[in-house]
Write a structure and sequence with these properties.
The structure is a single chain. By secondary structure, the chain is mainly α. The chain has two domains: 313 residues, no CATH class; 192 residues, Alpha-Beta Plaits. It is 45% helix and 9% strand. It is built from 25 helices and ten strands. Strands 1-2 form a two-stranded antiparallel ribbon. A two-stranded parallel ribbon has the order 3-4. α3 crosses α4, α7 packs across α13 and α9 crosses α11. The chain is elongated and about 100 Å long. It starts with a helix and ends in a 9-residue tail after the last helix. The relative contact order is 0.11.
């Protein structure tokens, strides 16, 4: 397409893909998660596919298929993913149009920086430390919408519905399961929102500043774009007015308009649309000069569309990646992941189905999809509970919400398989922790008052009653308790529950068959013991 129609088609494509992403995000709830979760977009993220598989030393079939499709697209059409599909890129374009319309002086060329970031991310992945969650665009967008935007939108709609006495604003969403029945809360939402806002604010220094200078996914696709088949061609009608170079969102065109850097062009076709002489065309052709190169000095700006990378900066980026890996792999959470010995917080409760800690951290990209789909708001981003390596990875916080026995939503939306699929029946034998009663706080033990809350709320029949000094007291059957946290959530003792779930009962290192056998064996032993202890209240399994 050589006419302004090309740019129009691209705007339509951006709008459709952005609408599809937002629709999938909205439908990523427990009721609809199995049909079309937002993780389908995350699987299209080539950087996620590469880092997750390299860091975990495992081939993930779905990521291989989706990644291969994006590789083919890039080899044919260059960075079309950035210009036509990426939802964050589309939002940045919209933000630029709304807030930064005025033409600004050409900013300093920082484009090599994203390649240095990519090198750091890949080097850290080679030594088993994932850093994708820091800067990957689709991960960043999904996490920001989940942790910062969605709770605020829910609160705003609920407040507007109550203030205006217009229940039709909120109730239909609640009835259809698109919003939880209770208000959603997340820790560190202010930090996530600040990073998200900064991505857009950077455009004050140039159009698509984030995409041009900081996006490691764009850098990876840019490297592949060197061999692209579709390229711009400048025809004889060009009068070298320089308008295309001035308006280029990717800063990929030289000042005379004769050379386009294939690694930086995001195929927006804006230059084709605004060319006054219709001198630009897109054809199957070899890339023009100006492909990515490496220079021996410290230069960060190229010649005639050329992008030179400094060997010194590349070595520094690799060292930064190794440094990141060294720091995260020597934190207490990393020791726990390797040895299985509890060295991090005793509140480190992973979602059911999560891989053993070391493999889980290698695969988890901190996208927040599992947080979004949790119907009880029980999953939250970790702060210090899992050490530095586990920052922002999902943990269960029972005091905020328990894990419902029949829910199987979180593995359905995990794009990398960090949370493995399970059925409702299999979930009954997935041990993520163990509840313990604080007798000094429990009103039955401490005040001799009647309370059955933990027993009534337990889906696993893991509370037994024994007479102690003539009074019936509750005990936790550790072999039955899987750590769902419903007892802690419903415990009436405030502010700290009298029954709390700890990670010492985590058995993720065991196979599922082993966990099931352990539970069944324990159940048989408990039944035999109950027959011999008349003061123990007997319960069915």
């Amino acid at each position: 397409m050589s006419r302004p129609r090309a740019a129009t088609v691209r705007w339509v494509s951006q709008a459709l893909f952005l609408a599809a992403y937002l629709a999938l995000f909205g439908l990523t709830v427990q009721r609809f998660s199995g049909a079309a979760p937002v993780s389908e977009f995350l699987k299209l993220d080539l950087l996620v596919a590469v880092v997750a598989q390299v860091a975990s030393r495992t081939l993930i079939p779905e990521l291989v298929v989706f990644g291969a499709a994006i590789v083919v697209l890039t080899l044919v059409a260059g960075r079309a993913f950035c210009g036509w599909i990426c939802p964050l890129g589309s939002l940045i374009d919209l933000s630029d149009w709304l807030w930064f319309r005025r033409r600004r002086p050409k900013p300093r060329d920082l484009r090599p920086f994203k390649y240095y970031l990519l090198v750091g991310v890949l080097v850290s992945a080679l030594v088993g430390a994932s850093a994708t969650f820091l800067l990957d665009p689709i991960v960043l967008l999904t996490r920001s919408l989940t942790i910062a935007v969605f709770p605020a939108a829910q609160l705003g709609l609920r407040s507007a519905s109550e203030t205006l006495q217009a229940p039709f604003l909120y109730q239909p969403l609640e009835w259809k399961g698109l919003v939880p029945e209770t208000q959603v809360y997340f820790a560190m939402n202010w930090l996530v929102l600040a990073i998200f806002a900064a991505v857009f604010a950077l455009s004050a220094w140039g159009r698509r500043f984030w995409c041009r200078n900081l996006c490691p996914l764009g850098a990876l696709l840019g490297l592949l774009s060197r061999a692209r088949l579709l390229n711009k061609r400048v025809m004889e009608a060009c009068n070298q007015c320089g308008r295309c170079a001035l308006e280029c969102r990717g800063q990929a065109i030289t000042c005379d308009g004769q050379i386009t850097n294939p690694s930086e062009c995001v195929d927006c076709y804006h230059c084709v649309a605004i060319c006054p002489t219709r001198a630009l065309d897109v054809r199957l052709a070899r890339p023009a000069p100006g492909a990515l190169a490496s220079a021996g000095d410290d230069s960060t700006s190229g010649r005639e569309g050329r992008l030179d990378l400094s060997r010194r900066r590349l070595m520094q980026a690799a060292a930064l990646g190794l440094g990141w890996a060294a720091v995260v792999k020597t934190s207490p959470g990393a020791k726990q992941a390797v040895t299985g010995v509890q060295t991090a917080s005793d509140a480190l409760l992973r979602p059911p189905g999560a891989l053993p800690e070391a493999a889980f951290l290698d695969r988890c990209i901190r996208c927040g999809a599992c947080l979004k789909v949790c119907p009880t708001n029980a999953l939250h981003p970790a702060l210090q509970e899992a050490g530095f390596e586990g920052f922002w990875s999902p943990i269960l916080v029972p005091r905020i919400g328990g894990c419902v026995q029949g829910c199987v939503a979180c593995p359905q939306v995990c794009p990398t398989g960090a949370i493995q699929p399970f059925t409702a029946e299999e979930k009954k034998a997935l041990f993520i922790g163990t509840a313990r009663i604080d007798r000094s706080a429990c009103i039955v033990w401490n005040a001799d008052k009647a309370c059955l809350v933990c027993d009534e709320q337990c889906s696993y029949r893991a509370i037994r009653w024994e007479e102690v000094e003539g009074v019936r007291r509750p005990f936790v059957i550790e072999e039955k308790c899987v750590g769902c946290g419903l007892c802690e959530y419903h415990c009436p003792v405030q502010p700290v529950a009298a029954i709390r779930v700890y990670s010492q009962g985590d058995k993720r290192n065991w196979s599922r068959a082993h966990q099931r056998e352990y539970q069944e064996s324990a159940a048989r032993a408990i039944k035999a013991a109950e027959k011999k202890l008349p003061n123990v209240e007997k319960k069915s399994n």
